UniProtKB/TrEMBL annotation:
This is histidine kinase. It comes from the Bacteria. Its EC number is 2.7.13.3. Residues 813-912 form the HTH araC/xylS-type domain.
Amino acid sequence: MLEGCSKEKPPVYRIGFSQCSMSGPWRKAMLTGMERELSFHPEVELRMLDAHDDSRKQEEQIRELVQEGVDLLIVSPYESEPVTPAVEEAYRRGIPVILLDRRTASEQYTAYVGGNNVEVGQTAARYIARLLKQRGNILEILGTPGSSATSERHQGFVQGLSAYPGLRVVAQVTGDWTVRTLKPELTKALQAHPEVTMIFSHNDGMGHGAYEVCQELGLTKQVRIIGVDGLPGADEGLDLVQKKMLHASILYSPGGEEAIRTALKVLKKAPFNKENILGTIVIDSTNVLTLLQQNDKMMSQQQDIERQQGLLHRLQQTYASQQVVLNWLLVTLLGAVALGAAAWYSARKNRQINHLLALQNTENDKINRQLLRQNEEILQQRNQLEVMAEQARADTEAKLRFFTNFSHELRTPLTLILGPVEELLTSSPDLTAPQRQDLALVRRNTQRLLQLVNQLLDFRKIEVGKMEVRATESNLVAFVREIVDAFEKPARLRGVDLRFQVAQPVLMAWFDGNILDKVFFNLLSNALKFTPDQGRITISLQPADEGRSVRVSVADTGYGISTQDQAHIFEWFYQGEQGAVAKGSGMGLALAQGLVKLHQGQLTFSSQPGQGSTFVVTLPRELPEALHSHGPTAPLQLSLDEPEPITSDLGHHLSETPTEAASETLVLVIEDNSEVNDFLTRKLRTDFRVQSASDGHTGFRMATELIPDLIVCDVMMPGLSGLEVVTQLRADWRTSHIPVVLLTARTAPEQQVEGVQAGADLYLTKPFNPTFLLESIRTLLANRARQREHFRRELSIDTATVATTNPDQKFLADLTAIVEANLTRSDLSVEDIARSLGISRMQLYRKVKAVLGTGVTDFVQNLRLTKARELLLDESLTIAEVAYELGFSSPSYFSASFKAHYQLAPSEFRTLHIAPHY
């Protein structure tokens, strides 16, 4: 709350102010202007509410201010449409409404105060035309897409430039009114357009970021920058112009003072304008010092006013306190006479009372000393308990970290168990029935062990608050039915009657299937485990709480839970007395309860020993918006080509002239665990040529030397981790095209996202299915082959220029530029090109072969023939001149090569494409 009145005198007017957000220098300047104007009006109270760029919240705040009975309402809308009904409602109720900076979608308001963004853009265009003498190339930095200020400033800028045909906007960069995402895109734009001499930024903050980019690129003398806002303060528009970081800034007044002045005119029934459009000026080196001095003078005057008001307030308080003291003195004087009469009588009584009090005080001192000793003992005991509790927490945390890390380590041996077992079961038809039964037993128990590992990891996630709910709206009946169906066969084999009862066939609710799947699986697994043969399990699902929630119950006719165990049934790792039934891990029910609470539900149970148990899950059908999933994450659209390997044994020097591709594909395996490394090598060697490395540094070195067709890499390795290997591979254009498959025991979604963001093409968690790995590799190599064909087509068009949108295309662009610069040399060799690129001859051959599927010589020949088509259209050149211009040793060799490539002789091509002269 901002108050413009003293506490002794209530305000005459109460103004409510709802705005988008307090953040940003411009909005702070708006609020500062309001405070400055209110300092002259102590009779006015301003109540400000901040919607933090939330239109729905701003609508609620406007209605809240109306309910509080404000005399006038000032609204700075975030979006025009959503808040229009609330503004109209306030206007119809007789409350004057002033719109500040932005308008609503209705004409029902009292007044508007704000700048003209179209005029700002036009002013910038006119000023730039004067600076550049109506000729030059401009880069425009836009604000947030969809913002009215962005669209209007751009519109005015385009309108202003239309009068100057010599001025041209060659590039646009989109920002968000800050520099968080501006610099990378701006750097690319300036590098792509070195002809830019002027930058028009939609605000001074982004202009400041543009200056830093120009400084990094060495363009500060060539490129001038113009911003918008012209605010005072450190690193704001006036300061940046004075420091010559900005050449100029277009003033866009926040309008805080004008809004308060207009509000007071409305409240005092004085004449006012409905439309108050704030003007703008250009701030540059000619007037910035004057404006800074004016601002300093205004701030100094404001401080003087505040000091005077503070002094006046203190004098008023002093005067009020003196009046109170005077009144009390009069009352005291009148009471003194009465008190004097009573004093003598009281003195006699006091002597008697003091004697008794002395005796009582002596006794109290003894009691106080005893209590003090007891308090010191209690404090010492409490400190000891706190130390013990902290030690217990540290011990518990250490144990949890141990179990979590141990669980991760279990995934590697599980991989070596489950992988071969899965392959034997799926690809060995000659196994006997007993052998298949034994292998199936191994697979079931391995999967059971994996399930226990996952439960322990889920427990750790819940403990540290890393488990998140991502709910979608779906049919809960169908979801539970699928889980029940999975238990139908094992229940039938034991003669257990498994029943699923629903109140209605469809019950839509918001829930996270990954979470509830674990809950219901645990409950049904326990029910089946503790229900004897020929027993019964009943799963019922029905709405509750008048349809606002849903209740799922799992009832069995099993052994029940003893009274002693019922108090601890949801404790982690607690194992009760279960008679003849094998004990579990003690995590299932505790995990289920934790997951249900995470889902904002409740898990309860009832049980009679010897008669059975019933577990009930109650879930809300609606969940907060923050827990809703906004759809699955879109898969990364990576175009991966399959390079053709060259004819040589990997690990040895290649022949001097590699001419023919081998029939096998090379895969590099990087894995520090020797057994997993050996397992992967054996499984992949049946389909590919395989080389392996036992650490990240060796793997990266081998990748740059061998240029494999695909890499399979572990994540957690000593020294250089898998993520770091991928990052280095993507940063090196020699290896940037190679598809990478990451294998890891880290299963958290955020860890998988981290792997993909580093540049991995596929992220598989251990244990993995070897067949799935093989098929994934084939798919990645096929995708690589398709992209290689795309590069071939791109280089076959008339112009040989390649857009540098990724490392592979940048490599082709650099290669093309070097070849084009040396086309006239008939002695141009592969060694010359490799030397210009700073790599070896063999590395150049492998890279070109992997990206384009062709040799370096063929690439140069195709580039020469593509350039020949362009030169043949120039009638001033003879065919022989074209041949020598492109580095062909003789016109006859040029003609033969051209005809073999295009099925036309050069003379025939020229005849077809050049119109005859008459």
